[in-house]
Amino acid sequence: MKSNIELLNSKQHKTLKFDMAKNGADAHKERQMTIVYAAEFPSIAASYPIVFVKLPDTGEFKAVALFGLQREKNVLVANGKWQSFTLPIVMRAYPFIFVPTNEEKTSYSIAADLASESLNEESGELLFDESGEPGTTLQQVQEMLGDAVEHEARTTVFIDALVEHDLLEAKSLDAKLDGVNSTRVDGFYMINDKKLRELDPEITHKWLQNGYLDIIFAHLQSQQQVMNLIKHHQIQQDT
Amino acid sequence: MSKVTDVLVVGGGTAGWLAAAYLAKQRGSRVNVTLVESPDIKTIGVGEGTWPTMRTTLQNLGISETRFLRECQATFKQASKFVNWKNDPKVDGENFYYHLFDAPSFKWDFSPVPYWLAGAAGSDVAYADAVSLQERVCQHNLAPKLMVNKEYEGLLHYAYHLDAGRFANLLKEVATQELGVNYIQANVTDVTLAENGDIHSVITDQAGEITADLFIDCSGFKSLLLGEKLGVEFVDYDDVLFIDRAVTIQVPYESPDAPIASHTISTAQEAGWIWDIGLTERRGVGYVYSSRHTTDEQAEQVLRDYLGKAADDKSARRIPIKVGRRDKMWKNNCLAIGLSGAFMEPLEASAIFLIEAACYMLTDFFPEDRESMDYVAQQFNQSFAFRWDKVVEFIKLHYVLSGRDDSAFWRDNKDPKTIPPALQQRLAHWQNHIPSKYEFSSVFEPFTKESYEFILMGMSPLNSSQEKVDPSLIQKAKDNFAAIQKAWPEAEQTLLTNRELLNRIKKHQFHNV
Predict the structure, then answer these.
(1) Active site residue B86
(2) Contact B192, B8 (CB under 8 A)
(3) What is the model's pLDDT at position B462?
(4) Which ipTM did the prediction report?
């Protein structure tokens, strides 16, 4: 599904409604991955492989949860439902998205993916009330926005620390996604376990105290979920 | 056995700081490196083109590409574009050809030359354009890498254009702050010799006498140690290459988003040629010319005509050039690196490359003691005499193959008396035969067979023989040529312009992974 993201404002979107019942998982059938925040690694590590990727435009590293091992393929959505236990924050906020409105990323606004079926003019709750103020849904989204902005800033600091200590390495794997032929899966980065263990004790102690080690081990543990994805690829191949 | 433990580099600039930094990085645990630089004598301030070896050099020094690009206002160099060298534009219209860094051997497993000559790339497709995407990438001012590429990694082979002054400063910072080079700011007022003719010390105005076991002369054209004190003769090449003057002007871009060229542009003129190098904030442009064929005033006018309005309120700098080399690079315990040893017109930007080559050779083949130094020096002298002679031949090749005869400068350049015999022999053979790798048997040939082929096929393709066409490979050659053309639309979509990529580097970085 091709996305159509627009900043929300009370004039243009006066008659736009949000219907939760139509905010189904099928909208994400072609979403191979989503951005995740460092603070949520421990809670989602049992559901998704968490890896790092480079953003194409800037080469910046971002943390993502994988929903599939091939481009535009999400093998965790079947029969309109997610097969996993818990959704990452960005997916929980969908179709609402937080976008920075300036280059320094000090100011954010709420946008929405208008391609979502949940956003329409017929059913559900109006986004803006008669006086142009945000309705209940948007108010809840605004609260999530505050948290998400903070999460993003802290994740950036966390990833900068990984880069500073030279901990990331490029990874690839060969997986039999159709059960027969090997496909190379690459473009991902992971923390190098050996380098992690060779870090200065002062750093590892600091990271024990500030929670970074929990986040790092959650990322490393989550690699077990790759097998789960491969299995889902093979199952979907057969159906 | 007298160990060589103290090295003194005399002179800053690109040569001095590169030599000091490289030596300290590779040998710092065994030798002490000191650099003495005059606070009063300016560096030459030009010299902004490099070869792809610079990527290795910077990596070996532990300098990040991101830092280098930012601090030296550097841009990518993928080729040299020779404009109006092939023919007189007044007769044949503007013409050009490219000498690319992206040589066929990177992607072809056989030489494409005979197949191009036989027409397998189609009619009217320039050689460089046929064998690589890089010509088009340059024509469209696109960068050879993406933000997701690693440090020093590219989609196409590339080197850099850099600001000479800023480059020397970056090297100085790294050398003194990270690599343990001792830095002395002082003028050398005298040089003392030992009984055996070795340099014993330099006397300075601020730091007294400085002794060392090995002296590296990076004092520029002055050649204070090798030329002046040790009296090593200068071998002129002005009977082969006529250029002996330069006039240069730096100009800003017309607008902040004006395109930045990804190649050095060399435009032939009536008595020489104009170099045009684009950095991030400005262009460095200069006319190198022969004083035997024009006057300084006329030359400056030619440069100003080339630049147009951009040069209106800018003053030009005139630099005399001595084309040639010292008879030896290394005498006794003194090695010259940079302009102190040799200089040619910068037609193929060889000068900085040869500084790097000297650094690589010195650090790999370092004389641990005085007893081994004479042998090392002899090897150095043989190697660099050969390299410089080959540089001269390659530069001369451009003049000899030119179809221009619209001024005495161009006609005189084709006089056989001015053509080195080795080059004459090669050219006679290449009238009818394609170059063979066996003609380039020395591993230290600065220019490879493929470089020669870019010039030959760009200027004067042989009407030659089908001798090297293997019928079983014709289809494969056609497929390869076609694949390159087919890859262009996607490349054009994916690649950023140089300007855009270099803007992004101001805020984002390349990574080591």
Answers:
(1) no
(2) no
(3) 66
(4) 0.87
